[in-house]
Write a structure and sequence with these properties.
Length: 196
């Protein structure tokens, strides 16, 4: 899969591991893996109620708010973290006891998970306007357009590709120089997944 488009409108919703909500499983490896044996997983959840996160022992997680007013995370160590749309990204272990409290109404989040010891990852937010270069050294690269307008990207070998609003592209083994571009101020989440 050199490039896979991730369109939330085409993906089936499935229940959370703890049954407290539903999520769109955007991509998972290996294909057909369950919530107990995946190597990595990318999902987007609709969170409409306060409550505890599902437990994922041995999994490293990154979480960002794509839409809505935001959420408070009560961390297992007692610290409280605020996540806002287009703001900070929370990074934590899947076994950590975390509960979420919505600020004002439902949110949509982006969730990137890798199995510790097999894969690692990082998730960053890029504020994009005009042309910008991105150097990729990861085996798998996630581009998630969180803006209401389309943006474009060009791979090291290939033509210009459009990335629709509120959708993503998953690029495998496309290391090198990637050109990004947007006519409007845009928010792009960039996830890098590395095999350990």
């Amino acid at each position: 899969m050199p490039c896979t488009l991730l369109d939330p409108a085409m993906i089936r919703a499935m229940p959370w591991k703890n049954g407290g909500g539903s999520t769109l499983e955007l991509a998972i490896a290996p294909k057909g893996a369950s919530l107990d044996d995946f190597a990595w997983r990318i999902s987007s959840a609709q969170v409409a109620l306060d409550g505890a996160f599902s437990s994922f022992p041995g999994i490293d997680r990154s979480l960002a708010v794509l839409a809505g007013n935001g959420v408070y995370l009560q961390r297992g160590d007692g610290q409280r973290e605020t996540l806002l749309s287009g703001g900070a990204i929370a990074v934590f272990g899947g076994e950590e006891a975390i509960s979420a409290q919505l600020l004002d109404g439902p949110i949509t989040d982006l969730n990137l998970m890798t199995r510790r010891g097999a894969w690692s990852h990082e998730l960053r937010l890029v504020r994009l306007q005009g042309e910008q270069a991105l150097e990729n050294d990861a085996e798998i690269l996630l581009l998630w357009n969180a803006a209401p307008e389309a943006l474009h990207y060009r791979l090291p070998e290939g033509g210009r590709q459009m990335l629709a609003a509120h959708s993503g592209a998953l690029l495998e083994n496309e290391q090198g120089h990637i050109e990004l571009g947007s006519d409007q101020p845009s928010l792009l989440y960039v996830g890098r997944l590395y095999k350990s």
